[in-house]
Amino acid sequence: MSKGPVLVWFRDDLRLSDHPALVAALASDCPVIPVYIFDEQSPGFRSMGGASRWWLHYALDSLDQSLRDKGSRLRILRGAAMPCITDLIKHYQAQGVYWSRRYGAAEMAVDASIKAWCKDNSIACESFNGSLLVEPWMVTTQAGQPMKVFTPFWKSARANNTFAQPLPAPQNVTSTNGPASPHELALADLNLLPTNPDWAKGFSSFWSVGEAGAQQRLLDFLSDGLKGYGEDRNRPDRNNVSRLAPYLRFGNISPRQVWHVAINRMETGECPASERDLTVFQSELGWREFSYHLLFHNPSLATKNYQARFDAFPWRQDQAALVAWQKGRTGYPIVDAGMRQLWQTGWMHNRVRMVVASFLIKHLLTDWRDGEAWFWDTLLDADPASNAASWQWVAGSGADAAPYFRIFNPVLQGERFDPKGDYIRQFVPELARLPKEFINKPWTAPEWVLRDAVITLGTDYPHPLIDHKIGRDRALAAFSAINNA
Question: What is the pTM of this model?
Answer without folding.
Answer: 0.97
